[in-house]
Amino acid sequence: MSKNQLHIRDEGRGRPLVLVHGWSCPGQFFCHQVEQLKAHARCITPDLPGHGKTCDLVPLSIEASADALYGYLRDQDLSDIVVCGWSMGALVVYSMLERYGGDRFSAVVAIDMSPKVLNTLDWSNGTLSGLTPELNTHFLEAIVADWPKLPSRIARRLFAENERTNPGTLDFARNEIAKADPQLLQPMWKSLTAQDFRQTLKTLKLPFHLAAGLQSFLYGQGVHRWHEENVADFHLHGFERSGHAPHLEEPEKFNELLLTLIRQ
């Protein structure tokens, strides 16, 4: 594997389905989707820089992630792609669209994500916790300094508080996140919190589906309304029993959404 290549799991046959994971949660967080959908689609699941088997093989940024992933899709000469990004993965998808256009893609799915994570004077639809540039500076320092405490906290906040999360799913999330190297996660967090894809989404000419966890700790109805008001071909899919990870919390319902798009 060269310096600029991602580790990519490529399984199944049929229409390409690209599944792009979130921060600290590598490609195996889409295991439910790959196992159930590889009989219907070619499931392409990268480990982004700083994550899983890619680690630091690619520069640690959203832009480098987009370049490397698009390079793979181009080298494979893939088109008519359904592309799905969860959290940080959605930003990688937006970066691909911004940098290379949408000709290879037929539909975009974002899982519980805002086009801009930080709250600023002109934007109140970042994280529900009120993360600002100033507060983000402290969190960036804590990623490395406080890492032993963070995997459990991150894993817990992925899931709806008022639902009974499968203990095995929670353990899986916590254990996988704990394997990460905070020295690599830190620059990826810095890059993802520097992004603003509002204009990219306002000019998007593809069908856009937002899979929103209605009990999410991270993003709320303001994000949903912004998409409804600003994205031309927008479709909201609410997951009533989910937090930030509908593909893990309600996998059957989520997979039905993807299967519907694959078959269109």
Summarize this entry quickly.
This protein is an alpha/beta fold. It has helices spanning 31-37, 62-75, 88-100, 133-145, 150-158, 167-178, 182-192, 198-202, 221-230, 246-249, 251-263; strands at residues 7-11, 15-20, 41-47, 81-86, 105-111, 208-213, 234-239.
Describe this structure in words.
It is a single chain. The protein has 264 residues and is of the alpha/beta class. It has helices at residues 31-37, 62-75, 88-100, 133-145, 150-158, 167-178, 182-192, 198-202, 221-230, 246-249, 251-263; strands spanning 7-11, 15-20, 41-47, 81-86, 105-111, 208-213, 234-239. It has a seven-stranded mixed sheet with strand order 1-3-2-4-5-6-7, with helices on both faces. Helix 1 (31-37) crosses helix 11, helix 4 (133-145) runs antiparallel to helix 7 (182-192) and helix 5 (150-158) crosses helix 6 (167-178). The termini are far apart. The mean pLDDT is 96.
Can you give the helix content as a percent range?
40-55%
Query: What is the straight-line distance between the termini?
Result: 35 Å
Oligomer: single chain
Rg computed from alpha carbons, rounded to a whole number of angstroms:
17 Å
| Spatial sequence of strands, sheet with the most strands | 1-3-2-4-5-6-7
Order of helices and strands: EEHEHEHEHHHHHEHEHH
Give the DSSP E fraction (strand runs of 2 or more residues): 15-25%
Helix/strand/pairing category: alpha/beta
What characterizes the major β-sheet? 7 strands, mixed
Give the low-confidence spans: none
Quick one: overall form?
A: globular
By DSSP (H or I, 4+ residues per run), the number of helices equals 11
